[in-house]
# Entry
Amino acid sequence: MSESGYLKILKDGVWTQNTGFVALLGLCPLLATSNSVVNGLGLGLATTLVLLICNVAVSLIRKLVRPEVRIPVFVMVIACAVTAVELAMHAFLPGLYTVLGIFIPLIVTNCCVIGRAEAFAFKNGVVKSAVDGIATGLGFMLALVLLGAIREILGQGTLLGQADLLFGEWGKGLTLHLIDDYRGFLLAILPPGAFIGLGCLIAIKNVLDARARRRAAAQPATVLQEAEV
# Structure
């Protein structure tokens, strides 16, 4: 596969077909855990690792699995990967594991994981499947981090609060207090704030995509005019 082909997979996963902003999959963890950047980054990294493991595993066994039983097999693979990631987080990141709680094992039910196994990994080779898993995970993490940043800034006036949960003692110096004596904006932290914030991010993405399409459409006309001159 050409380099441009891999770049297209990355672009589709991170931006064009972003799980959170376009496909609107995994909204339960996206809305529930995105009240801070650290929570979003932690769950995003866990989901990316699960996607990478599952896509590679499904691609490796795709010729051995009959189509009639592929979905139960996918679920078994995903459950094993999520269990391994959950145990690793429990061992090495106990604070973040406690904060994210039930949403780590619930990665098993995240539609984007089984969706990529079905739509991509079951039909492609290991390398392409690995790139797709990483790209899809990064796209989901992008949505989590952006939404978490908006809600954390508006709700608490900070950025990267409790970074030590993810980065250890070194992370205690990463917290930025953007607004002094800020009393907080409760709506941003509550579930309605998550819906409003996600809607705003989707709107911004649609505006950026529309502008990109207009620029792309205008380029051939500009090239033609220059050629005529």
Notes: DSSP finds eleven helices and two strands in the chain. The chain has a mean pLDDT of 91. The longest strand covers residues 158-159. The radius of gyration is 20 Å.
